[in-house]
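Hey, I was hoping to borrow your eyes for a little while. No rush at all, and the record is pasted right below:
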Amino acid sequence: MIGAGVVGCAVALTLARRGADVALLEAEAGPGLGASGTNSGILHTGFDSPPGELETELILASGDVRDQLLRALRIPVLRCGAVMRPAGESERDAVAAEAATARHNGVRVLLHEDGTLEVPGESVTDPVVYTLALTAEAERQGAELRTRFRVAAIDQGAAGLTVRAEDGTALPCGVAVNCAGLEADRVARLAGDDSFSIYPRKGEFLVFEPPDGKPLDRILLPVPTRRTRGVLVFPTVDGKVVAGPTAVDLDDKRDWSVRAQARAEIMPKAVSIYPILEGAEPIAAYAGLRPAGREVNYVIGRSSASPALVNVAAIRSTGLSASLGIGRRVAEIVESLGVALGPERELEGGDRPSFDGPWWRRTAEYRAVAA
């Protein structure tokens, strides 16, 4: 398993629970130090996901099994729901279309007479704790986590693949699963697969103390346009208020900075749906780099160049929400490659993972030290 973001950790846990011998390889010092630790933390129901797409299918599949995992692994979750309010008659049709999509996807929503859409099932978690909890449970189920293992070569042999780290460490495997996020295209090319390309889509967020001293009790959603889903305002599990994200397509996969103009881009849109933020000063800002695919989305399947390599790539901003469904989909693929998998074992659970400081500072501080 290459990559210990939330998707890689979910796949590792799924396979370990079914008895596979799993090594979870992470290039950084620990899990969740990339996009998985710099997102919104929102667990989406899939109410607004395009019907019929693989991304939608896996978000919905994750929702079917998520509550059991949240309870067993003691992952914090704020079951706050979400609302989308049209600003006028011109936006009512767009909100009604969102409601129709939700009903098609089987997601419960309420469309009120004033045009407001309520999505009771939307919730917020701590994405770092979520990722670390998956990792810890995968280890309890028998997986081995190896950090600072940056893959430098993948060699094809008669018995499978050999994955080699930059320091020369070699690890033979029957099947390699590429969940390397921003580096997934680089890892695939090491095995001769140049079928997809990944670029970073920067999403910047501003963090606030609640302006009136009262916690925000809902996720506030903008009415989407044809071009973008827009800036939202949402609570965190530690009582803060966050506004964002932006969406800036980049080439540099190492640029985790927050641009000077991000505040000017975010604030007017945030204030329009949460007026109390007018004049508020952010206490922090962070940026996440989402691994977007060039003209592809949710690349999940066997590599045509290396049959023992399974690519799990171009998992954009919904990776947290879809991760458990992705894990089950990958397990089906791995089993089809001849890996013997048993029935799914019960979750063991344990102490909730912890770390110093709020989750929304963790990756930014790590990147600052690493730089």
